[in-house]
Design goal:
170 residues; alpha/beta
């Protein structure tokens, strides 16, 4: 398994782990961008490029969220798999459920949900955010790999607020 490690200077480094010796890690569930060329690939990370791509935002989101929870490593399918290597891609596809199940934390990046900070008693902000959340493309994408094992997501308001807070720190 290959994981990303965020260096103190913000650079990302890919680290290889044997299946029986994987470090604790977070994992990111997300929807792919409409143009796959906007996603940060394995080759982009290896070459030290990709920061100008739209997909970089979800990587920094996951890196910050993982760091906030004391995790050094994280996994994102866009750039931890060398999709040009067909054998690796096939193995990763077969292993993905297990990788989600074994993650210490799973973050969901909802690129189509935006919210302003809610003030206590401001129901309009809550309703707007809640409606966008319920209509997110993430829920309609055919599968939710490894999330709860059943594809169902149950989040409390506290957990949602926590995610919004972390996203605001990126």
């Amino acid at each position: 398994m290959r994981l990303l490690e965020r260096q103190p200077d913000g650079d990302l480094v890919l680290r290889e782990f044997a299946d029986n010796d994987v470090a604790t890690y977070a994992i990111l569930s997300h929807t792919w961008l409409a143009d796959n060329n906007d996603e940060v690939s394995f080759q982009d990370v290896e070459g030290g490029s990709g920061k100008s791509k739209a997909g970089w935002e979800k990587i920094t989101f996951c890196a910050s969220a993982a760091a906030a929870h004391g995790l050094r490593y994280f996994w994102i399918d866009t750039c931890c798999i060398d999709k040009e290597n067909k054998a690796e891609l096939s193995q990763a596809t077969r292993s993905m459920y297990r990788w989600y199940r074994n993650a210490t934390r799973c973050y969901v990046y909802l690129s189509d949900v935006h919210s302003r900070k809610r003030k206590r008693g401001d129901e309009d902000a809550h309703n707007t955010w809640e409606q966008a959340f319920q209509k997110s493309r993430w829920f309609t994408r055919g599968r939710a790999a490894g999330i709860g094992g059943s594809g169902e997501v149950a989040l409390t308001e506290f957990e949602i607020d926590e995610m919004v807070e972390v996203q605001g720190q990126v």
